[in-house]
Design a protein that fits this description.
Elements lengths: L4 H19 L17 H7 L5 E5 L4 H12 L3 E5 L9 H10 L4 E5 L11
Parallel strand pairs: 1-2, 1-3
Length: about 120
């Protein structure tokens, strides 16, 4: 259990991205504790062909955006899909990002319904 949605987003995104990065290359990955610490992940990614792309929307919840920014500093590449004036995510941009980063996408994280705008 976690204290709330922001912490859950943080653990889910970091956990998924790092597991895919490590397990995706046949490395042994042991269960992580509450403190997730992979200080060498950016050097690891530079040495291996990697699944290091995360696709998200520019209008995501700050808990998602800040976690993606954290992972960017550690070597992940993040694609921020734009939204239109009504707040709808540009699906075509996501399709293009998936195609252009084929084989390197670790995670796509986009909310189904926006809690601020009500867009579904």
């Amino acid at each position: 259990f976690t204290s709330g949605g922001s912490e859950s987003n943080n653990y889910a995104i970091k956990g998924a991205a790092l597991c895919i990065l490590l397990i995706g290359h046949g490395d042994t990955f042991h269960a992580f504790t509450i403190t997730i610490s992979f200080p060498s992940s950016s050097s690891y990614m530079k040495q291996h062909h990697k699944r290091d792309v995360i696709i998200t929307a520019s209008i995501e919840h700050p808990a998602v955006i800040e976690t993606c920014r954290f992972l960017e500093k550690d070597g992940f590449r993040v694609v921020y899909a734009p939204c239109d004036a009504e707040g709808f995510v540009d699906v075509q941009h996501i399709k293009e990002a998936l195609e252009s980063h084929s084989g390197n996408v670790a995670l796509v994280t986009i909310m189904h319904a926006n809690n601020e705008t009500g867009v579904v």
